[in-house]
User: What shape does this take?
Amino acid sequence: MKTVVRLAACLLFALPLAMTLAACQREIGPDPLQLTGKLFVFNYRLAYATYMITLSRTEPVPDGSTVTAEFENPAGGEPLVLTRKLFPQLEKVVLESPDITCVKKARPYRVVIRVNGPDGAVLQTLETTVTSDADQSILPAEPLVIGPAYEKNPRVFRNGNAPDHFETAKCPVDLGR
Assistant: This one.
């Protein structure tokens, strides 16, 4: 009888303790990153466009993990690929594609993002599309400024004067889109 009483007393003490400890455990979700923003960046001064994707870290990632983004190439051909190391202390991840051409207004472009562990295993895959509210033809054909001091581009500003009309960017290939 004494053994049963001791066992019951231990259970009465251990059960609430076990439940408290279980409640303190943090569940680890399968997705370490959450998509928080996506857009096209048109840099008028330098005459280029890029994709920009922002992500927030929602779960820890192992040290040595990477994120790889595959951006649909608006000019056609193979996707543009960008790989970045994930640093455990950074809460935000910003992915900016290489320069792109031929962006068309209101057309969705595909982006695939993979989070890879240090061993190369895929921890997460995100798929999204990015749609521009402007056509790339809003950009000048050449950068308006050059160099580290942003000096006027002499090919655009002849004799230091602004042209009557700025030449605009054109898609080098006819995509038929």
Q: What stands out?
A: The chain has one helix and nine strands. The two ends are 85 Å apart (CA to CA). The CA atoms of residues 47 and 142 lie 6 Å apart.
